[in-house]
Amino acid sequence: MQFRRIKKWNKLFLPHHKLRYYPPKFVLRDPVLEGVYRALSNGQQVAVVVISTSNLRELSQQLELNQLNEYKEELRIGFKHIFEDSIYSNDLLVVHDYYSDGLTIFLKINDEKQNVMQIENMLRTLTPKLEKWIYTKYPYFNHTFDIGYMFIERLHYTTQDALYTAQQQAVAMAEKRIQSRYIETLIEMRDIIQKREITLLAQPIIDLSTNKIKAWEVLTRGPKGTVLENPLQLFSLARQSNLNYDLELLVLEKAFKLINRVRCLDDVFINFTPLTLGNKRFIPALNKLLTNYPEIKPNKIIFEVTERDSIEGLTFFHDNIKQLRQKGFRIAVDDTGAGYSSLHTISELLPDIIKIDRSVIQDIDTNKVKESMLKGLILIAKETGSLVVAEGIEKKEEADVLVRNRVDLAQGYFYAKPGTLEKERVAFL
């Protein structure tokens, strides 16, 4: 089985002039690579999602080879049909059988930030429908699925190599039955956390009324020179390994240490998922850090609720937020305007700061509808008493629209790219 997979992938990655030695059907796979390359070139993220049948071995014993192939084809048709009828249809690049024991789905994600929950919410919605679909075709068999996903990183690889690497990592996460590879991944993540092998960068947030730095957002990178340097990869593996809380707590500790070392007096935004903020261990861990770093002033720290994630069902979330505010910390809601859940979170939390997503800001100078959306979000912020931060500003024309609409704060490459906090502070002095 493993040899057949390697042979299959080797054919896929051969140069075009070598494809003439193989049957023409292999050429049909080129559009997949072209679609992935085009999405990456357009600044989009591409996620590889692997779905495999958990008890495929048992199924293989019950079906003939041709029936097994029909089952796999039904799986592909079913998922494609379900996906195209869903709200996620615009995110789909292709459904393919690159992974011979299941499906490989390629998704394009416009948001440049890590958005693991976007994928998990999609899978949580669509997987039961897929199970129902396949059950109607094979009612005599119990169907369960293993799922893994990974983002494609193309900084140091060709598109083909990056695609293959991401797909193999997604397979490893899906098939936790392949214990050796899964445990290897788990150990790798634990090793990064234990050795504290993450780097913190900072991006300035500008006060548009004075054009001076008002705050900084802390951004995380994994071990330098590795695939996990990319935060998408790092946090994807952390979440699938159930180490997201440990990683985010490490980020908080290193952020406190950094603020203390450089004697930063500006406000600092630190990103957290609702799962971490709603963890019952979070407040005791924070209290310990405050004891270890007495110089940290809570009123200068903003806990930024990240990802389009629901806060419902998190038992300790609201109580933890209440305790954070009692200590003097402030709360921000990220990705506003990118989906319903962020608006719901605003109504639930009444945050101190609302961060407007890049999807609203991009080309707002030439799109009146987006400017109307901006005005609506500003009205919501006034109702909740929140400051507004516009994210992802990349050109002067976008910044001019923000100034015209009296947005409080702005952040983006137009002002500065992320860098080390020490260097960035010196550059803006």
TrEMBL record:
Domain EAL: 182-429
GO MF terms, alphabetically ordered: cyclic-guanylate-specific phosphodiesterase activity
Name by which UniProt lists this protein: Diguanylate cyclase
Organism the protein comes from: Metabacillus litoralis
